[in-house]
Amino acid sequence: MARLSSLLSFSLALLIFLHGSTAQQFPNECQLDQLNALEPSHVLKAEAGRIEVWDHHAPQLRCSGVSFVRYIIESKGLYLPSFFSTAKLSFVAKGEGLMGRVVPGCAETFQDSSVFQPGGGSPFGEGQGQGQQGQGQGHQGQGQGQQGQQGQQGQQSQGQGFRDMHQKVEHIRTGDTIATHPGVAQWFYNDGNQPLVIVSVLDLASHQNQLDRNPRPFYLAGNNPQGQVWIEGREQQPQKNILNGFTPEVLAKAFKIDVRTAQQLQNQQDNRGNIIRVQGPFSVIRPPLRSQRPQEEVNGLEETICSARCTDNLDDPSNADVYKPQLGYISTLNSYDLPILRFLRLSALRGSIRQNAMVLPQWNANANAVLYVTDGEAHVQVVNDNGDRVFDGQVSQGQLLSIPQGFSVVKRATSEQFRWIEFKTNANAQINTLAGRTSVLRGLPLEVISNGYQISLEEARRVKFNTIETTLTHSSGPASYGGPRKADA
């Protein structure tokens, strides 16, 4: 009995300690009396672009348990492969390019039969390829052989046969939403003429993140001279790629290469950053570009971790969930549309509305949301659980606004067109509306509305039935609608 009592006392003390430790680590995370439209707090410049990081210590992001990053990749820029310890959901805000990801343990399903220049010693060759791009399929060859072939550059070369192979490469374009598992290495290449802009949300509070609530990119190549300045205590520490931590001799043995090549893998004297400029052609195996992706049937068999579809486009109004020609459209992406989101526990919403169109007041029932403006401006109001207006103002292109779970929000476009992307911390986020045909007030009896607000039954009837839309409507009332600050309206 004494032993059981001691065990219970120890368990209680441990529970109190852990609770106190957690409270000390994340004190009053969601004590939000005021929200702000956020701009990037850190900019990491690189040779062919930059990485802009929002301050994840900001109370509203800390409350949501997420961090936010924007990648701007110039033409012919290559964002070198990296991975995170968190689930990541990205949106292509502008441009087009290529994306590759390497899922641990999965086979190389893209194969090429091009002939490479001999690399001297290796049966597979180590030179630069002169062959044409593969078609995504080919025969795997293991032997050596001399053969002649004319490449895309019109050059004749004799070399050892080498069939390059790698994991899946995809074309990406404006409107694509990309889901990425923790630990999956990912790279991007801008093969267009305009900048490729990708915004990403990292779910720091996810059960899959076993580290702390800091965004930690692990780079496989390149170096970041500025370091992870957003993590306390690392301001003066440049961030090197993970191969840099091993001795060259160990790398030489692991890759079966010479020590000099192993040292090059460490990028010790490389100050180009994590987005480099590709010199010359960039030939990787990829399928032909299609103007529209076909709708893929999902039967459960193909949706393995290696072949799971990880992208979907949200910029096609024909696939919108809500569409009104005079007002705009709203598209959602959840685990029913993209099954991989079931494991990431994230989802997204894409909105595009015309001037003076309004998204009816609503709240997220089971998720936090992070709203990023891709185009235009809007007047936004957010109300917390205390009934206080914690945000009342304009949001414009490039700004970020966090909307905690349960906080009610209304959006009204004040420019010719307002477009945004929302990332939500639930695979199947649900919204409830305050006004409209499917709203909470529409579901209440007239007597409840009349007595609750001290209005007549006729007034209650107007409150309940006057708005027939479900999501989008024309804004009504004077130009100063939405708050006391007329300049914002």
From TrEMBL:
Seed storage protein. This is a seed storage protein. Belongs to the 11S seed storage protein (globulins) family. GO terms for biological process: seed maturation. Residues 1-23 form the signal peptide. Keywords: Disulfide bond, Seed storage protein, Signal, Storage protein. It holds the Pfam family Cupin_1. GO terms for molecular function: nutrient reservoir activity. Residues 35-263, 312-461 form the Cupin type-1 domain. Hexamer; each subunit is composed of an acidic and a basic chain derived from a single precursor and linked by a disulfide bond. This is 11S globulin. Gene3D superfamilies: Jelly Rolls. SMART domains: Cupin_1 (SM00835). Residues 114-164 are annotated as: Disordered. It comes from Brassica carinata (Ethiopian mustard). Residues 118-148 have a biased composition (Gly residues). InterPro entries: 11S_seedstore_CS, 11S_seedstore_pln, Cupin_1, RmlC-like_jellyroll, RmlC_Cupin_sf, Seed_Storage-Functional. SUPFAM superfamilies: RmlC-like cupins. Residues 149-161 have a biased composition (Low complexity). The keyword Disulfide bond applies.
